[in-house]
Amino acid sequence: MPDSSVVAKPWSELTTSELYSILKLRTDVFFVEQKVDETELDDRDQEPGTMHYWIEDAAGCAAYIRLLVNEEPEHLDARRIIGRVVVRADRRGEGLAQVLLARALDDFGHEPFLLHAQQYVAPLYAKFGFVEFGEPFDEATIMHIGMYRAAQVR
Fold first, then answer.
1. Under a CB-based contact definition with an 8 Å cutoff, are residues 51 and 67 in contact?
2. Where exactly are the structural domains of the chain?
3. CA-to-CA separations, 33 to 30, 42, 56, 89, 113, in angstroms, rounded
4. In 6-129, which ranges are E strands?
5. If you ran DSSP here, which 8-state letter would residue 32 be given?
6. Are 82 and 121 in contact (CB under 8 A)?
7. Which residues on adjacent β-strands are paired with residue 94?
């Protein structure tokens, strides 16, 4: 089984090669495969509080998630937002998104979290204690549902 070690870095520590590999994966999946028609580069990647988590292999970035910090909570008390969850097609089904999610929650799970899950993936997040809220909504031409996870006491 290929390596599934997680790399975690803020923007200021990303190398140009790492950034290229991350953006290539996000573009290949979100634009080419899923035909998302919204802006991918939203300037949030560069914010000081943003953390980038990924797993790489010989072909580049195999899986990735982005962890943002909002100044104001979007729902209840959640300021930490998980997004841009993506796994390369040839590595799907290996649990890489779960590995990345577990790492982010290990790093910041003492804080509440929010995410916008593609509806069909919501059960994955439920395994980690995320609970659906609100009505399904269209985001980037794909149906999503809001999900919240309360802070966990360590």
1. yes
2. 6-149
3. 6, 20, 20, 9, 28
4. 6-10, 51-57, 60-69, 80-87, 113-118
5. I
6. no
7. none
For range 62-80, the mean pLDDT? 95
- CA distance linking residue 66 with residue 57, whole number of Å: 18
For residue 102, pLDDT over 70 is answered with: yes
Parallel/antiparallel/unpaired status of strands 113-118 and 6-10: unpaired
d(CA 20, CA 95) in angstroms, rounded, equals 23
The beta-strand segments (E) located in 3-121 are 6-10, 51-57, 60-69, 80-87, 113-118
Fold of 6-149: Aminopeptidase (3.40.630)
From its phi and psi, is residue 45 left (phi > 0), alpha (psi between -120 and 50) or beta?
alpha
Give pLDDT, residue 142: 84
Tokens for 154? 């360590």
Tokens of 113: 């979290």
Beta-sheet strand order (sheet of 51-57): 6-10, 51-57, 60-69, 80-87, 113-118, 142-149, 131-139
Q: What is the pLDDT of residues 10-42, one digit of tens each?
A: 999 999 999 999 999 998 888 767 766 666 667
Cβ pair 125, 115 in contact under 8 A: yes
